[in-house]
Every structure is written in structure tokens, then in C-alpha cells.
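Quick illustration for those who missed Monday's session on complexes.
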Amino acid sequence: MQYSIPRGTYDILPEDSPKWHRVIAEFRKLVEAYGYAEIVTPIFEQAALFERSSGESSDVVKKEMYRFTDRKGREFALRPEGTAPVARSYIENRMDIGSSYTKLYYLGPMFRYDRPQAGRYRQFYQYGVEFIGSNNPYYDAEIIAILWNYLTGLGLKKLHLELNSVGCSVCAKEYDKALRDYFQPYLNQLCPDCQERFERKPRRILDCKVKECGDIAKKAPIQLDYLDEPCREHFSEVQHYLDLMKIPFIINPRIVRGLDYYTNTAFEVIYEGIGAQNALAGGGRYNGLLNQIGGKNIPAVGFAGGFERLFLSLNEEKITLPGPPFPEVFIITIGREAQELIIPYLNIIRVKGIYAEYEPDRASLKAQLKAANNSKAYYALLIGEEEIKQKSALLKNLESGEQKLYSLEPISDLIKTIQNKEL
Ligand code: AMP
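Prediction with adenosine monophosphate bound:
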């Protein structure tokens, strides 16, 4: 019996993990400069948390959630997204007490049962940021700036930012009414899902992937024409701050976002050239969410992006990230006695953080030298008969061929030379 990986998932293989480390390290570095701290929540949560927050009629909850019942009959779900768990933790840990603002970031796998294709997986890895505690449009712009600076900082060029406002619950009512008026005459031509959406959430019709629905929706009224005064003002302030930060954007009134909890600002970063799944990241303001899941009425704004599509884009622009590291030093021993001599020092070298390889299975000098060269090590460290006598080792720069004998006692000189690549 041979087992295979579940459909829609993938292994991060050792040759790829340095790339992951790199994009994650860049993300951490940037968000920490903005004062965000990491939060880690469980991979599963009560299913009701997502039903309540994302909306029971959202695709994520209705069709895509990995649900399971535990041995005591409790309903859980593998998290399909990161915002609701962060909001749950914020409320549960009373993070609002003592500080008016909370800046959080997260990294980790999310799960959605969707049809796999390029850029769409069933387990995917997200990076995300949440700012909780203010309705100031400055923060909408700051959140967008983090995302934009992250992606462009990695070197990506073929991307653009799309911005919209979905209004607040007050203006959304007006808008829903306008949408129903518009779709009413076409009701029979809409797909069964959209016919259901018509009553409950007519805005979701705009997001439907069925061609007929998309065609009908093309001329539908847009939310921007139905914003009340405070929402209009908020939207224009966000744009003003983005201008100040020199972040280019285009307004796309069609961005509705898949989840129910968005208010006001909604945005996506789109990458041209990676196929249909071209949203690198998306987010927006979610002033209603905390209250909706049992917290106070606290405004918040955030985004989430997926690393899989980020890698597709980096590949598309041939932006190279580091591959596996090469050894700094490759140890070569001739005979048992040499081995006995060097092993205690090998430990010390590695504890100092120097990447040292040693392959004692290879006996001959020739085979070991070949392995050292193949590994692309910077140095070889040879211990043969002569070296044993002097309690020393011969350090050889494998590129220049230069070599020098180092005493093993004390070993500090040798370590310093390797660390500073002095030979
Ligand atoms: P969403 O929560 O749907 O707005 O997703 C935010 C980001 O997560 C998207 O822009 C993608 O980069 C990524 N993402 C969402 N769903 C998937 C998926 N099924 N596979 C890979 N990446 C995804």
C-alpha cells in the first residue's frame, strides 16, 4: 500500500524551505517595524465561530468548510481564515483592556474545500495583519501600506491595488434594496444559488462565478453610489492617506469580498500573469465583526494573503529567493584516530552556529574530497596522520585552493577564520 498526499495539499520540500523562511522573515521584519506582534491561534475552532462571523450563507461556510464532530459531539471546523479566530482571541483574552489599539499579525495554514487549481489549494498558508481599536481611515491606509510595501519590497512589479467601499450596515440596506430592484426582472435567469442570494444577500450575486449571473450583474448599481455621508468621507480620507504614502490604487466598485463582516474599505492586490486565481491578498475594514461574535462594538481593519500565489508571482518575474545553504566547512578524516580527534571539536563548531558537514561513511580521502566539492562547501577541514601528531587540522579554501594549518587547542582561531571567511 502506498499512501499519497490529500488532493489540494502539498509538501514543502527541503529544497524549497529556505524560500519560505525568507518570505516569512521579510514579512515579520516589516510588520514588526509597524509595531505588530504575532498571535498564534489553534488550527481548529468551534464551527459556530465561522458561521457567525463569515455568514452562514457565505461560500466559505456553506460549501468550503472542513467540519468535524469530536468524540463528545462538539462541532468544530478547521479554520478557513484567520480573522475570526484572532477576533475570538481578542475578546476572550480581553485585549481591549489597558490599551486602545491592538496590532496583531499571524501566519499559518488555512483550510477550504474548494476545487484545486493553480493558486488554489485545500490547505494554504496565509500571512495576515489585523489592527483593532480605531475607525480612523488612517489605519485603513496603514494596513494597505503594509501589504503593498511587503509585496513590492520582495521585488514584484506586475501588481496593482484595487480599492472599494462597501459602506456600513446603514448604507448597505439602501444598496441591497437597489440591487433587488435591479435583479427582480432577471430573477428566473439567475442560477439557483443566486436566486437564494437575492433575498438574503443580493450583494453576493455580484460575486457569482456563473457566466449568466455575471453578465446580468454587469450593469447592476454599485455600492459607491449608495454611500451615506460618513462612509463617503471615510472612503475619501483613505484615498487621501494612500496618496500621502504614495501608494497607487484604482477604484474597483465590483470588489465585494467573500465574507459578510466587511464594512467600508475593501481592497485586493491583483497580480497579472498567474491565471484565474490572481488575488495575491485582500482585506478591509470589519467594524461589525467583534460585536457580532460577542465582543464590544470595536472597529478593526486587516488583510490576509496567501504564500502560494506569492511564489507563483515571484516565479513569474524570475525573482530568485535563496535555495538550500551550502556547508561552511566539510570535515575530512583519514582513519579512526583522526575521527576520534575531531568529533569533539565538530560539536563545538556546530554549536557556534557554523554549518559543518561530516560523512564518516566515506573512507578514502578522494571520496571525501569529492563529496566536499559536490556539497559546494566553502572550506574543507582535513585531519590526517600529520595533523593528528600536532593536534591540528588543515583548513582548505575549496575555491582558491589556499590552505593553512590550525591548532585545535584552543580552537577559537579556527572558528574565527571560518566565521569571517578569512582564508
Ligand atoms: P480571502 O480570505 O479569500 O480573501 O483570501 C485571502 C488570500 O488568501 C487570497 O488573496 C489568496 O492569496 C489566499 N487564498 C485564499 N484561498 C486560497 C486557496 N484556496 N488556495 C490558496 N490561496 C488562497
